[in-house]
Amino acid sequence: MIKMRRLSTAHVGFDSSLTALTAFESAQDPSVDNKVAEIVADVRARGDAAVMEYTKRFDRVEVQSAQQLELSQAHLQSALKNLPKEQAQALASAADRIRSFHERQKGETWTYTEPDGTILGQRVTPLDRAGLYVPGGKAAYPSSVLMNAIPAKVAGVSELIMVVPTPDGVRNELVLAAAALAGVDRVFTIGGAQAVAALAFGTETIPAVDKITGPGNAWVAAAKRRVFGVVGIDMVAGPSEILVICDGLTSPDWVAMDLFSQAEHDEIAQAILLCPHSDFLDQVEQSINKLIKTMPRAEVIRASLSGRGAFILTKDLSEACEISNRIAPEHLELSVQNPDVYLPLLRHAGAIFMGRFTSESLGDYCAGPNHVLPTGRTARFASPLGVYDFQKRTSLIQVSAKGAQHLGSIASTLAHGEGLTAHARAAEFRLEQE
Questions:
Q1: Residue 380 has what DSSP assignment?
Q2: Of 339, 342, 362, 427, whose Cβ has the fewest other Cβ atoms within 10 Å?
Q3: Active-site residue (options: 264, 330, 333, 360)
Q4: Which residues fall within 8 angstroms of residue 82, CB to CB, at 6 or more apart?
Q5: Smallest Cα–Cα separation from 243: which of 231, 226, 258, 264?
Q6: Angle at 222 between CA 219 and CA 227, to 5 degrees
């Protein structure tokens, strides 16, 4: 039986209990970090040879040349063509919805002209090449392919390189079909830290990219940390999170299953329910113990809920919103009668699922918004993955002769104040001499 941890905002010591509940040691395991450092350095130094060696060691796949690690477009299209009809239709529908949402995120170039003729503005351009890491083996997520590749293509990225490990040579055809549907340009069957390093630095066969996105295990996360600065990365994601705010009128079975939907990801995933009604918390706990028996990943769910899950009794829904802001969850379900009333009170969340019928799982697969979301309270300052992550902004400055007189005087004064004489003189040279 699962006995959920319970907190109450009315109890003395609630603040410290909440801090302890949401704390997560995100520091990298030194042993993993040290080994990843060796792998990254080795791939940077030896290129293809190192990638092939690590692929043989970790994925038990041996090839004679790195070119054999690349899958052809014909293979991707074949995977898409041979999908069962129901899967193909679901994948296509999800892709269409994701593309439609992200089309609305595209940034535009803009300029304006000042009265003296000076032109200022911002030019928005896509990255030249992006890399997408996709987990392989049992943790194969075609939805992640769509969520990472489609925004990149909508942004206008010229070339999208995907890496996906194939342990023992086993390929996930649904992942490859998703790559075909999303417009991935090249796919290499490599994974782990060596794949991240290959994307960051390039090898004789695998081209270097400008940014790496996509989920992965601790080794992948450590490698992304290490190559950041050489390339951009999306984020270093922590364990999955869901927080449900409920008014006590949603089916307790629905709420229990929504908590399961994130708990089943990982033993250290976090699922929290906030509600002002203790009797409803009792009902949800009963549903949890009833429904857990039907779950194939019951042991993972049990470990997650027992280790990091919690029910929090609040005095009202407004207080629940304030507690949610402190937690800044990855996924926030606002399972109440009138979600629009409480939306203005919520400042920090990766994604907000409004109303009783909006399960978090719809956002994971097909609603349209991106499911790559900030975790570990980073929603206080970070955003979901989007088209803007694959675009960059360049400032445009075209100063007129007249504008140089006004701006030059300002720049000269400030530069002299900073002791940077050349800066000042560069501006002064353009001032008209009387």
A1: G
A2: 362
A3: 330
A4: 173
A5: 258
A6: 125
CB atoms near residue 84 (< 10 Å): 9
Spell out the SS3 assignment of 22-73.
HCCCCCCCHHHHHHHHHHHHHHHHHCHHHHHHHHHHHHCCCCCCHHHHEECH
Cα torsion 205, 211, 214, 220 to 10°: value is 70
CATH architecture of 6-24+238-367: 3-Layer(aba) Sandwich (3.40)
What phi and psi values does residue 153 have, to the nearest 5 degrees?
A: -70, -40
Question: How many residues are present in the chain?
Answer: 434
Tokens of 337: 């009668």
Is 241's pLDDT higher than 90? yes
| Extents of the domains making up the chain | 6-24+238-367, 30-233, 399-428
In a 10 Å sphere around its CB, with 0-12 CB exposed, 13-18 middle and 19+ buried, how is residue 315 labelled? Answer: exposed
**What distance in Å separates the CA atoms of residue 177 and residue 172, rounded to the nearest whole number?**
9
Amino acid making up residue 154: V
- The fold adopted by the segment(s) 30-233 is Rossmann fold (3.40.50)
How do 270-275 and 351-354 pair as beta strands?
Answer: unpaired
Q: Say whether 410 sits in a helix, a strand or coil.
A: helix
Is it true that 6-24+238-367 and 30-233 share their CATH fold?
yes
Determine which helix (DSSP H) or strand (DSSP E) holds 394, and give its type and residue range: strand 391-398
Angle ∠(264,245,105) on CA atoms, nearest 5? 80
Identify the CA nearest to 154 among candidates 116, 204, 101, 118.
101
Task: Tell me, yes or no, if 330 is annotated catalytic.
Answer: yes
DSSP 381: T
In the residue annotation, 331 being an active-site residue is answered as: yes
Q: How confident is the model over 270-286, as pLDDT tens digits?
A: 999 999 999 999 999 99
Measured CA to CA, the distance from residue 58 to residue 70 in angstroms comes to 17
- Predicted confidence (pLDDT) per residue in 342-365, tens digit: 999 999 999 999 999 999 999 999
Nearest C-alpha neighbor of 195 from the set 40, 28, 30, 389:
40
**Gap between the Cα atoms of 225 and 203, Å rounded:** 20
**Which residue of the set 102, 265, 331, 348 is catalytic?**
331
140 band by pLDDT with thresholds 50, 70 and 90: confident
258-286 core/surface letters (b: 16 or more CB in 10 A; e: else): bbbbbbbbbbbbbbbbbbbeeebbebbbe
Point out which residues pair with 275 in neighbouring strands. 313
Q: Using CA atoms, how far apart are residues 17 and 21, in angstroms rounded to an integer?
A: 6
